[in-house]
Each structure stands twice: as C-alpha cells, then as structure tokens.
UniProtKB/TrEMBL annotation, chain A:
Keywords of the record: 2Fe-2S, Iron, Iron-sulfur, Metal-binding, Oxidoreductase
PANTHER family associated with the record: OXIDOREDUCTASE WITH IRON-SULFUR SUBUNIT (PTHR44379)
Lineage of the organism: Bacteria, Bacillati, Actinomycetota, Actinomycetes, Geodermatophilales
Domain 2Fe-2S ferredoxin-type span(s) in chain numbering: 2-78
InterPro entries: 2Fe-2S-bd (IPR002888), 2Fe-2S-bd_dom_sf (IPR036884), 2Fe-2S_ferredoxin-like_sf (IPR036010), 2Fe-2S_ferredoxin-type (IPR001041), Beta-grasp_dom_sf (IPR012675), Diverse_Oxidoreductases (IPR051452)
Metabolic or biological pathway: Alkaloid degradation; nicotine degradation
A GO molecular function held by the record: metal ion binding
Name by which UniProt lists this protein: (2Fe-2S)-binding protein
Domain of life according to the entry: Bacteria
Automatic annotation (TrEMBL), chain B:
UniProt keyword annotations, A-Z: Molybdenum, Oxidoreductase
InterPro entries registered for this protein in UniProt: Ald_Oxase/Xan_DH_a/b, Ald_Oxase/Xan_DH_a/b_sf, Ald_Oxase/xanthine_DH-like, AldOxase/xan_DH_MoCoBD1, AldOxase/xan_DH_MoCoBD2, AldOxase/xan_DH_Mopterin-bd_sf
Record's protein name: Molybdopterin-dependent oxidoreductase
UniProt-listed Pfam families: Ald_Xan_dh_C, MoCoBD_1, MoCoBD_2
Annotated Basic and acidic residues bias: 11-23
GO molecular function: iron ion binding; oxidoreductase activity
Start and end residues of each Aldehyde oxidase/xanthine dehydrogenase a/b hammerhead domain: 29-144
Length: 169, 828
C-alpha cells in the first residue's frame, strides 16, 4: 500500500492505495465520488473523464498514485455554489444527454475543449470530443450544447450562469 | 346557459412543448444512482470465470487454490449450483415444436460459447474476487465448433447441443395465402413477368449500452431486493421467481438510474440469477458489475440473419409477390425472446407496399456464439433493410426510378386504414407527404444534378442518393395478438396517480425508462390532464415495490401504451374529484366544468375549486359525499387494440471515393411521422440516436467471431461504436398523422431512426457506384469492402471476412441467388 494525498473537488483526502489502483476506482470506491463512472476497460469511451491539475484525463488511464499531490475536479465539483457550469447548463438546455451515463465525461471533456479553444467550429467540437462515446444522442445535440456554452462563456466569461440545478426552461 | 361571458382563455398546453428534461438535474451533476454505485454493509463482490473456448466439455475443474486466496468467501462451480439454477427462461416459443435446449446460468459440464460462466468467486473486494479467478484450475476437451449457419443446417452437421437432433430450433412460417390475407405466393411467382432474388446479410451487432450491466442483491430474512441495470424490472421479478423458486412476493426488483439499453437490457441475465443464488446461499449482499469486455462477449447480441429475398412484379413495376426465407442465428441458447425477434420481423417485410402475395419462412439456428435477442428494432430493422434494398434492386431491373417504383406501390393516404398482406391494419399516415418533405429537406434536385456532373466528369469521388420509405409496428402490444403468437406475456401497461394532500401529484408508471425521458413526458401529460403545474408532478418508476404492475420499456411502447395508461388514470382522478367538487360547491355534477385544473359551476362566476385543493379535502376527509371513499387517487391499465405504425422517408446522400473505398455521408434528411408529439425535444433526440445506430450498422459495426469461435471484437478498440467524428449532421422533421389506436395519437419514436436509416445508407452507396457494376456491398461498408466491390466484383465481403465466420460463411446453393464468391449477376 502507498499513501497518497489528492485534493478532489476542493477536499483533501489522504488514503492508502494499492499501487495498481486506477484513479477512477480510487475516486469511486474509496472516496465515494460515484458521479464519475466506468464505461469500458480500454480507455475508449471517456465516461471516466476528470480534470487532473486542470487537464482532462481519462481516470481509468491514470494510476491513483500518479495523482498524489494533485488536484482533481470531477463532475461533482464543476457547479459552484449550486450554480451550474455553463457547459452543464447547455447540455440540459440543448438536450445533450439521454441516459446520462457518458455525460459526466462528456461534460468534463467539453469544458477542457472550450478552455483550449473558446470558439470551436462544429468540426473542432466533433474532433474535441472524439474520445468520448455516447450511444444515445448521435452527438448532434452535444455539439449544439458545446456551441451554446461557448457562446455563453465567450459573452459572459465563465460561471455567470444564472440558472441553478434542476431549473426548467 | 351562461349569463355572463367568462374568460375563455385555454390554459397553455404542455403536450407539444419542448420541455427541458427533469431527469437532467441529477445526470449533469453526477448525483446519480447507477447500480454499481450501490454499497451495502457487508457487501461481497462476485467475479465470473468465463470459458475461453467456444465448444468443449469441462474435463477438470479444481477451485481449491482460489478458495484459499485472501479475502475469498466462497467459490462455486456449475456442479455446486446445478440443482438450483434452473434454466434462463425463453418467453416466446414461436412454434409448438420449437427446440429449446435449456440455458444454464453457469455451465455444468459443457460450454457452448466463449464467455459462458464456468465458476464464480465471491470475495470481500472486487479485486480479491478477480485475482482469485486466476487460481482456478480448469481443463477443456474441445468439441467441433459450429459457427456457420448455412453449414449448421446441413444434414450431418456437427451439433451445438448433443441432445438435439439438429441445429434448427424451429421453422416458423407465415403464409398470407394460408392466413387468408393474400393470394398464393408460388403461383404469383410462376405468373410474374419479372422476378429479382437477392441474398442479404444482416451482420451480428452488439447493443453496447454505455452503462455496463450491474446487479446488487440484498437478502433480508427470506426476502430479496435486487438492484439491476435492467430495462425490465417487472419482467425480471416474475422470471427470477420462476427460475429460482424464490416466491414472487419475496422479491423486489429495482432498476435505479439505468444507462441505456437498446434492447440489450431486455433480458434475464445469467449473472442476475447467479447473484441471487449466491446471496441466498451466503445470506449477504452480493454485487456483480461487468467489465466492458465481459459485456461485449456475454450480453446478448442482435441481428445476425442471412436473408433470401425474392420479389415478383410486372413490367410496369406493379409488385406481385414477396417471398422471404431467413436463417436467423440464435447463438448457443434461447434467451428471453431470442426466437421471437425474427418472427416479429415476419410481419414487416412487406413494408408500406401493396403486395398481393407474401410468404415468410425462418429457421432459427443454433451456433456456438453468444445468444442473440432484442436490439433496437428487433426484427423490424432486418425486415426494413431487406424490403428497402430489394425495392432498389427491382427498380434497377425495371429501369425505373427507385422513388417512382415506391410511389407506384405504396399505400396511398386515402387508403387508410389498410390491411396489409401480413394481416396488419395500418391506421394512418401519408407516405407521399413525408417523401415530398424529405426531398425538399435534402435538396434533392441539386444533389441529383451534382451526381450527374460527377458521373459525367469521371470524378473519383462519386455521389449517390439512397431512399428508405419505411414503416414499423410499434406500441407493443395488443395482449390478444401476443397470445396468438404464443408470446409468454401480455402487452398492456399500468399507471396510477396519487393526489397528495398538498396538491402535488405522484404518477406511478409500469414503464421503466433508461434515458427516454419518461419523467418529463409523463409530467407533461398529467399537467394537461389534471391542469396542474408541470413542476407539481413527480414520476415514479422502476421499483416493483412502488410500481407493482408493469411491463417495462421496449418496442417503442412507453408513450403509446404506458402514456395512455397515464391519461386513463388521470381521467379517473378527474371523475372521482368531480363528485367531491359537486359536493363542496353544492352543485350538480352535470353543471360542473373542469378546466385549467379547477371545477367551476357553469354560469356561476367565482364558484370553483381547484383539483389540487380537492386532494387536500379528501385527505382531511371532514366533508365529502356519502357513499364514496375519501380518495381521488386512481389507477388504470391500458391494453391497446392495435399496434401503432410510425412511418417516414429517409434519404441519404453519400460520397464514395472509388480510389480508396472510403464513404462519407454528405447529407442525411428524414421526415418521420410518429403521430402526436408530446415533447419535440425528446423526439428529435430519439431520432438522432436511432439514426446513429442504424447508420452505424451500415458503416461501422460488426461482431466478428474467428474460426475458433472467439469474439475478436471484444473491446471498444475493435467494436466500432461511432464517435462524433464518425457521424454526420442530421436534418430531421415530422409530419403528424395521429395514431387512431390510442387517445394520445402517439405512434412511438424509439426505434424509428434505427430501423429506417440502414437501407438508406447502403442504397446511397450503391447508387454512387452502380454504374461501375456494383450491385451489393456487404455491411458494414468498410473502405476495404467498398474498394473490393468496385475493383474486384462481388459484395466485397469475402476477403474482409477471411479467417473469420462473421457471416456464417458466404456460401449458398440456392438457385437464382448469386454466390457471394462470384460477381453479382443481377436479376433473373
């Protein structure tokens, strides 16, 4: 066992982990961060995407010990003070999800995409989320959601979304 | 008679509004309840050792070393559980003499497909359980592997099941002449001026829902609660009881948040049975969650048919007869509705066309592969593909425009209701209107002109346009019809409405969503029916203790059948409330008007009471009419009298690079008629998702077994679920011809895009390269296959399939059917 300290969604956790433990299993099983999910075992689906020190990573491709001393943001930590992140809000408004299983990873990947490219074209969005699989939506509304979020973040800066979680259009 | 004109503003209708979904709040924030999230005190973890061979006897099995591993609580083999595991149920014996070899949840002495369970380890942690699997000592003695359907049905073929006399499970026939719904098919072919015959291959697909299957079983005394990532908690509960002997009333099944299904979670899974057996033995909560590799290898697959299709017509293009013969791969066992999937398709091969004669035959064939079962469309995509492909082939033979041929033969708008040659009564629609709008949406004339330019200019990138003018049977299903087809259950659905003291409303539905948005759509229906605010409605589902009766979600049935049950329950609530309102308003029931959620006395302004207030009044029960119970809650069960028949026209414009074989969808346009639309946002999303899966069958997906029966597409590296880069933008629209079989007028939308799109895509690719001599390309249209079909002839499939048995081989001796190894010969 190896002791690691990881700050996840603003809270610091110190735990003993097996060296082989993947970050996603550490998040889900030791820290109870079950908002992040596991969809495959080959790093193809991206459902487990989180931000590690501000970069999006597939948390099934990172060992927990590699995250020692790092800051992790999961889907549970992107809404601040009950206010949805513009990307979360856009996924809701543009119907960018159905079953919602890929959604945590898709939102985390999209946030990172918009950080790198604040006004992506449709093709750039499709390329940017290529590593995240969705079986429900056919991606069209996800693309729309990212476009809408880009527009909102571009005109207002980040985190000025007025709508709170659960608000209906 | 009113003396004073009251304001007559109609309250805003919820039905038809693009409401954002209620479900999203938890899904976009990670506050979800996936089964694998569940942790219970003392919970143990089950891992499954799976067969690496397709067909073998188990000659040696020693689990003692695994038993001794740290953290291991128990290890079980098939022999340990043989007496209590029963057989995975098959609910659809499609013929009286169908052979069902039995389906153990865990192999006892013989394995019949790669991935079959052979031993279970139960341990304190998931990792301890998985680690201990490696300590199990097991030997196999190989048996001949049966993979190719066309070989499997030959005399003297090796058998999948030694105790059966052949690999054929059943021979199902629908003959319209015998059924009295058509004329003699053989005679029609004998008399025909033109016949066209084709052999189409519906490749094996994997549903590939995003959430892997997961089960948690908690024993409490002699009661058991099972959480499962299932589409069908109600069906599962009944079946668990019948398989394991745990009495039904001692079982509670909960489907919490479920991450997609597409038919793939319409199943009673071996691992669900095994988790329950293990929890019963140990008296402890047990969890099993599959890996993606386990999922692709062992969750049921879909499609997998070889289709022999003959069509007869006169020279003017009037269709005269249709003849269908299928080989349908069952896999190694019959699961819940394995044999019924092709049989369901039997009624859809005639599509929207007025065939006077029709005959359908299907052999269900056992092979050493994972069983097939429902996958989005279940039998109807296969049928739609065959008819829409052969109509194009017939058009080529006749030298007609494919759309002109379709127009000549489809049911006209003024002919509804129309009884088809398959005996179905299509209730409504307008195929011409949908087609005209789809052509407009595509920009058809311009693309045809471009196609002409590219053809004349010898452009290496050719353009093609493909059609699919389809219908499907949805709203499964009228119970009596299911009974006549020997299906093991009815097709009704139930709903109840609970009016809470504060006026809030709980709607309980027996339909079990896993991404479809029931919570939102049902709220809209109830908001209109009861005149209450959308946000005052909560929809409960997916728990047999909360929703005691239901038949769950599949077959585009939820809104059509389940939504109607909600409407009927709401009508009963209003009827009950009316009596209380009359009492409280001191008026006659006949003088009451219910509008915008309130009862008012006609002609007496101000005398009104909201239904939400009546809910409080009957809770207090201080003042209510004599002779009735103090409740306005109600439930309803709706059993449809007919199927519903969504239809649509899908048009694909496809670029084919003749030098590389690469295909690119240039534009995709479709107009679907799904009847009344409750929520256009959800409808559009369902169409998009269906299109993605149907297009993906045409272009990308295929479950491939090698010659030894190993699934070579066992991860998402090899099984190509498309990404955002692999799919085009979709242009979608609707016409609305309400269904006549339910008060909502809804027809169902879950499967439309998936059923319709596949043949449109393949027809488009063929239209691009037909002038180069190509008459078929086998799905999926990989660049290699397309290139080979263009440059080497044939359907391009053989080389790509070499060394594998992905299609059950590619041989046929049928007269009039081209050998897949030779060049396609065109029509007879």
């Amino acid at each position: 066992m190896t002791q690691i300290t990881v700050r996840v969604d603003g809270v610091s956790y110190t735990d003993d982990v097996e060296p082989r433990t993947l970050l996603v299993h550490h998040l889900r099983e030791q820290l109870g961060k079950v908002g992040t999910v596991v969809g495959c075992d080959t790093s193809n689906c991206g459902a487990c995407t989180v931000h590690l020190d501000g970069q999006s990573v597939k948390s099934c491709t990172v060992l927990a010990v590699q995250a020692d001393g790092s800051e992790v943001t999961t889907i549970e930590g992107v809404a601040e003070g009950g206010v949805l992140h513009p990307v979360q809000k856009a996924f809701h408004e543009m119907h960018g999800l159905q079953c919602g299983f890929c959604t945590p990873g898709m939102i985390m990947a999209s946030i990172d995409l918009l950080k790198e490219n604040p006004s992506p074209s449709e093709l750039e969005i499709r390329e940017g989320i290529e590593g995240n699989l969705c079986r429900c939506t056919g991606y069209q509304n996800i693309v729309r959601a990212v476009q809408q979020a880009a527009g909102e973040m571009g005109s207002h800066g980040t985190h000025t979304a007025p709508e709170t979680t659960g608000a209906q259009a | 008679m009113t003396l004073v004109d009251e304001p007559q503003t109609e309250p805003a209708k919820e039905i038809g509004q693009a409401r954002r979904r209620k479900e999203d709040a938890r899904l976009i924030t990670g506050k979800t309840t996936w089964t694998d999230n569940m942790v219970l005190p003392g919970m143990l973890h089950m891992a499954v050792l799976r067969s690496p061979v397709a067909h073998a006897t188990i000659s040696h099995l020693d689990v003692s070393a695994a038993q001794a591993r740290p953290g291991v609580v128990a290890v079980y083999t098939g022999a340990d559980l043989a007496d209590e595991q029963g057989s995975i149920p098959c609910a659809w014996p499609v013929t009286p003499d169908m052979v069902n070899p039995g389906h153990p949840s865990i192999a006892v002495d013989r394995v019949n497909h790669v991935g079959e369970a052979v031993a279970l380890v139960v341990a304190r942690s998931r990792t301890a359980a998985v680690d201990a699997l490696e300590a199990i000592d097991i030997d196999y003695e190989s048996l001949p592997v049966v993979l190719d359907m066309e070989q499997a049905v030959q005399e003297g073929a090796d058998l999948v099941h030694a105790h059966t006399s052949s690999n054929t499970s059943y021979h199902f026939v629908f003959d319209a002449g015998e059924a009295g719904t058509g004329t003699d098919t053989d005679q029609a072919f004998a008399d025909a001026e033109v016949t066209v015959s084709r052999r189409f291959v519906q490749q094996r697909l994997i549903p590939a829902f995003m959430e892997p299957r997961s089960v948690v079983v908690q024993p409490v005394g002699d009661n058991y609660t099972m959480w499962s990532a299932t589409q069908v908690p109600h069906i599962l509960r009944v079946m668990l009881a019948s398989v394991t002997g745990v009495p039904e009333h001692k079982l509670r099944v909960i489907a919490p948040d479920v991450g997609g299904g597409f038919g793939g979670k319409l199943q009673v899974n071996p691992e669900e049975i095994l988790s329950l057996l293990v929890a019963r033995r140990l008296g402890k909560p047990v969890k099993w969650t599959e890996t993606r590799s386990e999922s692709l290898m062992t969750a049921h697959h879909g499609r997998d048919q070889v289709q022999f299709i003959d069509v007869a017509a006169d020279r003017e293009g009037n269709v005269k007869a249709l003849r269908v013969r299928l080989l349908a791969d069952m896999g190694a066992y019959l699961r819940l509705i394995t044999p019924g999937v092709p049989a369901l398709g039997a009624f859809m091969f005639p599509g929207i066309y007025k065939f006077p004669a029709y005959r359908f035959e299907c052999d269900g064939v056992f092979t050493n592969k994972v069983p097939t079962d429902a996958y989005r469309g279940a039998g109807r995509p296969e049928a739609t593909f065959a008819i829409e492909r052969i109509m194009d082939e017939l058009a080529v033979e006749l030298g007609m425009d494919p759309l002109e041929l379709r127009r000549k033969n489809w049911i006209n708008a003024d002919e509804f209701p129309f009884t088809t040659v398959a005996g179905l009564s299509y209730d409504s629609g307008d195929y011409g209107m949908a087609t005209d709008q789809a052509l407009e949406l595509l920009g058809y004339d311009e693309l045809r002109a471009e196609q002409q330019r590219r053809r004349e200019g010898g452009d290496p990138v050719q353009l093609g346009i493909g059609f699919s003018t389809f219908t499907e049977m949805c709203g499964l299903a009228p119970s009596r019809v299911l009974g006549s087809l020997a299906f093991g259950a009815g097709g009704w659905e139930q709903a109840s409405i609970r009016m809470l003291p504060t006026g809030k409303v709980e709607v309980v539905t027996g339909s079990t969503p896993h991404g479809q948005g029931h919570e939102t759509a049902w709220s809209q229906i109830v908001a209109d029916s009861l005149g209450v605010p959308f946000d005052d409605v909560e929809v409960l589902h997916g728990d047999t203790a909360i929703s005691p009766r239901g038949l769950d979600t599949y077959g585009s049935r939820s809104l059509v059948v389940g939504g109607t049950a909600v409407v009927k329950a709401a009508e009963k609530v209003v009827a009950k409330a009316r009596k209380v309102a009359a009492h409280l308003l001191e008026a006659s029931e006949d003088d009451l008007e219910f509008r915008g959620g309130s009862f008012s006395v006609k002609g007496t302004p101000g005398a009104s009471i909201p239904i939400q207030q009546i809910a409080g009044a009957v809770f207090a029960a201080h003042d209510y009419p004599e002779g009735i119970e103090p409740s306005i809650d109600a439930e309803a069960t709706f059993d449809p009298e007919n199927f519903s028949f969504p239809h649509g026209t899908h048009i694909c414009a496809m670029e084919v690079d003749t030098e590389t074989g690469h295909v690119t969808i240039r534009k995709y346009a479709c107009i679907d008629d799904i009847g009344t639309i409750v929520n256009p946002l959800i409808v559009e999303g369902q169409i998009h998702g269906g299109l993605a899966q149907g297009i993906s069958q045409a272009l990308y997906e295929e479950a491939i077994y090698d010659a030894d029966g190993n699934l070579t597409t066992g991860t998402f590296v090899d099984y190509l679920v498309p990404s955002a880069m692999d799919l085009p933008h979709f242009d979608t629209g609707n016409t609305v011809h309400p269904a006549t079989s339910n008060p909502l007028g809804a027809k169902g939308v879950g499967e439309a895009g998936c059923i319709a799109s596949t043949p449109a895509v393949v027809n488009a690719a063929l239209d691009a390269v037909r002038h180069l001599g190509v008459t078929d390309i086998r799905m999926p249209l990989t660049p290699e296959r397309v290139w080979r079909a263009i440059h080497l002839g044939g359907d391009g499939g053989d080389r790509a399939a070499e060394g594998s048995n992905a299609y059950g081989g590619a041989r046929t001796t049928e007269s009039g059917v081209e050998s897949a190894t030779g060049t396609q010969g065109g029509a007879q």
